[in-house]
Amino acid sequence: MKKKSPDEKLSSLRKLSTDVTFRLQKRVDTSDILFVASGAFNGLDKIVARRLDKKSLGFGTSSGELHVSSDDANSEQARKRDYLLSKADQGDLINFGIVPELVGRFPVLVPFHSFDQDLLVRVLTEPQNSLLTQLKLQFAIDNVDLTFSSEALQQVAQLALERKTGARALRSILEGVLLDAKFTVPGSDIESIHVTREAVLGEAEVEYTRRVVENKQAVSAM
């Protein structure tokens, strides 16, 4: 039997690999499939700003009016960024670095608004499985009622804005505020926990309410 050369062995392996790949391939009709892509696209607002400035001036210079400055307040900076992203088009995405063949498959661009303090409070409280609901259920296992003052919720939202990580910061902030309580509550006589603004800022501890145990003395008639 003739021994195969290394080139012949490699050719046989390639043919086998091609046959296996062909058998595993399946055709998919994408006519009724909705493709959605999302991302942060950091820096896209600056690309849009340069395009809009050039169009308004007619020169290669920039007016700077549409640029987001790091000296702006958070709310003003977010407002400018939201405005610029609302003007983004496919050309801006290509300049951002996405290949044109991919950009062409997403004809509709939908920018999301930046979070403000009120929106973050709504994220904390309104969803059916909100973060506050989850935390309350955790303490309810030990028959402890967890409450927050409105000022505390506003402060949590403000701290999350300062971290600039969106709604993800809410969990880490609340976990830090309630960390000691999670170790204190189990097996204790604590009945309820109230979180104040000062507790969120670390200036005070959360407020505990403890159960009142009445000592019943049996009175015996002599």
From TrEMBL:
GO MF entry, a single one: ATP hydrolysis activity
Pfam families reported for this sequence: ClpB_D2-small (PF10431)
Domain of life: Eukaryota
Ranges for domain Clp ATPase C-terminal: 115-206
Keyword ATP-binding: yes
InterPro entries per record: ATP-dep_Clp_protease_ClpX, Clp_ATPase_C, P-loop_NTPase
Keywords of this entry: ATP-binding, Hydrolase, Nucleotide-binding, Protease
Coiled-coil zones: none
Claim: S-adenosyl-L-methionine is one of the keywords in the record: no
Entry's Gene Ontology cellular component terms: mitochondrial matrix
GO biological process, one term: proteolysis involved in protein catabolic process
Protein name: ATP-dependent Clp protease ATP-binding subunit ClpX domain protein
Species this protein is from: Dictyocaulus viviparus (Bovine lungworm)
Organism lineage: Eukaryota, Metazoa, Ecdysozoa, Nematoda, Chromadorea
